Amino acid sequence: MSIALSHVNYIYDEDTAMAHPALIDVSLEIPNGQFVGLIGHTGSGKSTLIQHFNGLVKPTSGYVLFDGEDINGEGYDKKKLRAKVGLVFQYPEHQLFETDCFKDVCFGPKNLGLPEKEVELRAYEALKMVGFDDEYFYQSPFDLSGGQKRRVAIAGVLAMKPEVLILDEPTAGLDPKGREDILNLVARLHEEMGITIILVSHSMDDVADYVQRIIVMNKGRVAYDDEPRNVFRYYKELEEIGLAAPQVTYVMKELAAAGFDVDSEATTLEEAKNEILKVFKKC
Predict the structure, then answer these.
(1) Whole-prediction pTM
(2) In sequence order, which ranges of the chain are alpha helices (DSSP H)?
(3) Which of 164, 221, 245, 264 could cross-link 232 (Cys pair, CB 3.0–4.6 Å)?
């Protein structure tokens, strides 16, 4: 099931003196099963873009297609769409509201009209899938740590059995260990379930080791759209729009400039490690 945008424009406060474009002529396609990093600084349009993917926002002009159908067409079932295209918000508090974690995760599948046993089974499986401990099942989600809240929020979407999982800044506010745990969880979900992942972030370091493709947004437009290695070649241009390449990129560039025979375009820690070990072996 692919998501495609064709010449999408979105204007905030249209027909007012405060009108300003958030998306400008955006065309792209995300095929089934791809792991995509959507990168951009604050105000670049990335959050507005993902709200188009499941119909939370309707474009001012242009088309959004899911599996070839216009999601804003007359009679299109957006409730069914939102079960297939799940969105985990940046702040889990915005989607957690029940008295305990288990009830919260049950909410989505219950709204699908499923039998109670199926609802509870889905909720249990989703919570275990995200590594949530049984002892916290009946605890208030608001008493949890930031990382635990995110796990519950992700489980709530997974219980709907989506084909696409969108995560808006899932590591925001977490310490390095918490960030690593969440990113490893997302990577495992992609590998084991084969679902499409769209990971929104402003940090190249957060996505460099995980994604297959990076879409960079800048001032409402797609600035770059390619595999990480090719995007990071433009690290100087990325700096000009308020972003940066991963630390690995800078380290490898400096080693190459110092005369070491390394691949200066290595993008992951594993690639960098192998390149540095190769130099040591030669010495």
Answers:
(1) 0.90
(2) 46-53, 78-84, 101-111, 116-129, 146-158, 176-193, 204-207, 228-232, 235-240, 247-257, 269-282
(3) 245
Closest CA to 238 of 256, 250, 252: 250
Count of beta carbons in the 10 Å neighbourhood of residue 177: 9
Query: Of 1.10.10.10, 3.40.50.300, 3.40.50.2000, 3.40.50.880, which CATH number belongs to 1-76+163-174+198-228?
Result: 3.40.50.300
pLDDT, tens digit (0-9, with 9 covering 90-100), for 118-152: 999 999 999 998 888 889 899 998 888 888 898 99
Of 50, 49, 58, 95, nearest to 76 by C-alpha is 58
The domain limits of the chain are: 1-76+163-174+198-228
Q: State the residue for tokens 């297939």.
A: 84
